[in-house]
Amino acid sequence: MSRHVKQRIVSWMALGCLLAVLCSFGMDASAQQRFPKPEFENGHTQPPTFTPAPRADFMEVVDVFVLILSLSVVTWLVLNKRSRKGVFWASIFSIFYFGFYREGCVCSVGSLQNVTLALFHTGYQIPYTVIAFFVIPLIYTLFFGRTFCAAVCPLGAIQDLVALKPYSLKSWVEKTLGLFPVVYLGLAILYAATATDFVICRYDPFIGIYRMEGSFNMLVLGAAFLLAGVFIARPYCRFFCPYGVLLNLASRVSRRHMTITPSTCIQCKLCEHSCPYGAIEKPVPAHTKEKRSGLVNNAIFLSLIIPVLILIGGYAGSLLHESLAKVNPTVRLAEQLLNEVETVDGIIPLEIEAFRSSGQSLESLYAEAAGIIQQFYIGGWILGGIVGLIFGITLARLTIYRYRKDYEPNKGRCLSCTRCMDFCPVEE
Amino acid sequence: MEAEEKKYNRREFVNTGIRFSIALGLGGVAALVAKRSAGGELVWQLDPSKCIQCGRCATSCVSSPSAVKCIHVYDMCGYCDLCGGYFRPGTKDLTTAAENQLCPTAAIKRSYIEEPFFEYSIDEDLCIGCGKCVKGCGAFGNGSLQLQVSHNICLNCNECAIARDCPTDAFSRVSSDKAYSFKGF
To answer: What is the pLDDT along chain B (185 residues), one digit of tens a residue?
Structure first.
């Protein structure tokens, strides 16, 4: 055999081997390792790969069931039994079940972000449990008032327990601070709708306590809220809770709301200072009414201000859109790349490194970021406009006097804690 | 008296109207988002093909130590003596001496099987999910060490704190029956 033929045979054999390798690679990629798994001669068996199972699916159904059950029980305790003791023990149960056992997650307050995100992003998968946690308390509130706030919400329950020495706030302080939840709700919706962040979850003050671990800031925030809650009852519920805004609105049209007195009010004033949340409305005698024409003029004037306030609010919101958008990770990354930020605190940010290795082009990233900033611009207008509208309505409502004979709970603000009932001397 | 009763009725009528419109709206929103959802329960999952082992899993998780653990896919392991996941680069003597180990918490146990093979198992209680071994194994070995969310520890937070900080967006929610995902296997 000539040398030439030998070479050809060798090269054909090499090609064959290569083909065989390629075929086997195509058929079974997993079998190709740099270092193939050995076959042991001493009969060693390999241990199984450790993959602990997640919490069983049916436990989530149990959670929803417990939510419905505790809502029903609390509603019954508030409306039928009128029992403060019962509501107190229900709070303890919620603290232990929804708080310490379920570690405060998922909660109805946070669920509104998931629902928003699911509405704006078709690709987002929302668990059915989260939908249930969002909808069920709202439905109960529509019919029975905020019994969810009374003792089912773990955030409310823990604050209710520490409200030991509540001071009543001046009405104007209460009303002004009470506007903040609207802003917070707007921000939460804006950030959830743009798939930026879940701010409610990030700044949940009590989750660290329920998990019994957390970052320093989280625990300090929780402790601060509880400490403040001793003197200003339920500060989170009244001046921060974004879900409370929705419950407040739903409760105003509630079918059966709790009453202070079981039958007729005898105007004894005993309940006057019993509400730690400032939710009891005093009687408004007919003679305190101002002249009708003056009130009508005021109402017309203040209603005319509303569109102006909406415009001012919307414009202010749109001015803020760039600062608001900076929270978004894509926008932040695009900004860093645009400004040619190489290092942050002497280290190349991982996001930049990851972006460079991802192979995405700068142009497409900038386009994506510009799209998100545009969303924030529109969102800023809407958010600011709504805040302006709420401010306007709050102002205009000051002119409305509702004649009231008896001491009544404010249906929107009342948390159905039933404390006032113990002060009422009227027998059923 | 009659007039008052009538007024009350009007208000009650309006309230009922608003109440049922809100209830209807809520039902509509719930139905819409439920229709888009694949249903079932969802858990957080780390996609190992996106993971760059940056180390944030160890620090961002709300649990400490992190719910992200290194999980050993034994079927992919070459049982190497010189394990890129176990030894620091440049180690001279292949012994279990502390200064040789890559793992900051000595969570990997090296045991002799037969010449020349060693088995590496992970003490999940010690593992902090920093991913140093995962990087080493992926660079020099088969990549049988992989980071995964360990579901006996994961609290399944509504917003995963690691997902928020992940530079490559490797976290997503998946159906709980496909809770684990391993690369190349």
So the answer is: 444 555 568 888 999 999 999 999 999 999 999 998 877 788 999 999 999 999 999 999 999 899 999 999 999 999 999 999 999 998 888 899 999 999 999 999 999 998 889 999 999 999 999 999 999 999 989 999 999 999 999 999 998 999 999 999 999 989 888 899 998 87
Q: Tell whether A299 and A228 lie within a shared domain.
A: no
Helix axes B2-36, A108-120, angle to 10 degrees: 60
A to B CB pairs, distance under 8 Å? 179
Yes or no, beta carbons of A37 and B76 under 8 Å apart: yes
By Cβ distance, the residue of B18, B74, B152 closest to A253 is B18
Residue A33 has φ and ψ, to the nearest 5°, of -120, 155
- Could you tell me if A166 and A312 lie in one domain? no
Is residue B160 within 8 Å of residue B100, measured between CB atoms? Answer: no
Domain membership of residue A242 as a residue range = 60-280+409-423
For chain B, positions 79-138, list CB contacts with chain A under 8 A. Answer: 79-80, 113-114, 117, 119, 121-122, 124
How many domains in chain A? 2
The verdict on residue A262 lying in a domain is yes
Contact across the interface for A46 and B159, Cβ inside 8 Å? no
Q: A257 and A384 share a domain?
A: no
Regarding whether A307 and A197 lie in a shared domain, the answer is no
Residue A256 located in a structural domain: yes
Is there a contact between A151 and A74 (Cβ–Cβ < 8 Å)? yes
Q: Does B167 touch chain A (CB under 8 A)?
A: yes
- Please give the DSSP secondary-structure letter assigned to residue A243: H
Q: What whole-number distance in Å separates Cα of residue A207 and Cα of residue A210?
A: 5
pTM score, whole prediction: 0.88
Say whether B43 and A128 touch across the interface (CB within 8 A).
Answer: no
